[in-house]
């Protein structure tokens, strides 16, 4: 008898709790899921920013990507993206150094881009070496110099850059 009363009481409380919850949270399951995701993203961004401010390179790069893309529910801000990428680059991260160079290239500041590409290339970052070759090939920010372009394409190719390998293959066929 005692067991039956407890069971009925639990069922009553469960049904009542569902009704109270439904009245307080009338959102659909989709909206609840979106709210949970939104909350997790905000928490992740908060933690990422805290880590970035403490000097964590990975967090700085992640924050730069978030600002550059305008995703993860934050407004696109290319200056803020460059700020965080530069912080990572100044710590010697070759990918970040290349990305900073790319940001300056897109802005038309090829001399500043070259500075960052050279820093990344010192660590054998092949993509930066390819872009140095391109700057020389097209004369962007530096005097046009085919020999220097080929030199940098060869370095990039040696370090595994497929685009540079294709350029060198075309040059060698001629």
Automatic annotation (TrEMBL):
Organism from which the protein derives: Acinetobacter defluvii
UniProt-listed Pfam families: Sel1
TPR repeat residues: 94-127
Keyword annotations of the record: Signal, TPR repeat
PANTHER family according to UniProt: ERAD-ASSOCIATED E3 UBIQUITIN-PROTEIN LIGASE COMPONENT HRD3 (PTHR11102:SF160), SEL-1-LIKE PROTEIN (PTHR11102)
Signal sequence segment: 1-22
Name of the protein described by the UniProt record: Sel1 repeat family protein
Alphabetized InterPro entries for the sequence: Sel1-like (IPR006597), Sel1_AlgK (IPR050767), TPR-like_helical_dom_sf (IPR011990), TPR_rpt (IPR019734)
Domain of life: Bacteria
């Amino acid at each position: 008898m005692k067991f039956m009363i407890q069971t009925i009481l639990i069922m009553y409380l469960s049904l009542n709790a569902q009704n109270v919850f439904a009245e307080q949270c009338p959102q659909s399951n989709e909206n609840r899921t979106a709210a949970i995701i939104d909350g997790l993203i905000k928490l992740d961004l908060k933690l990422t920013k805290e880590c970035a401010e403490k000097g964590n390179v990975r967090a700085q790069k992640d924050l730069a990507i978030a600002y550059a893309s305008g995703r993860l529910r934050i407004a696109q801000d290319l200056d803020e993206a460059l700020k965080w990428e530069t912080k990572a680059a100044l710590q010697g991260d070759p990918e970040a150094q290349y990305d900073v160079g790319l940001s300056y290239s897109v802005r038309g500041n090829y001399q500043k881009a070259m500075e960052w590409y050279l820093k990344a290339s010192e660590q054998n970052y092949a993509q930066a070496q390819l872009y140095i070759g391109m700057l020389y090939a097209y004369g962007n920010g530096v005097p046009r110099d085919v020999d220097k372009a080929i030199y940098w394409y060869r370095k990039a190719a040696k370090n595994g850059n497929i685009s540079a390998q294709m350029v060198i293959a075309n040059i060698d066929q001629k």
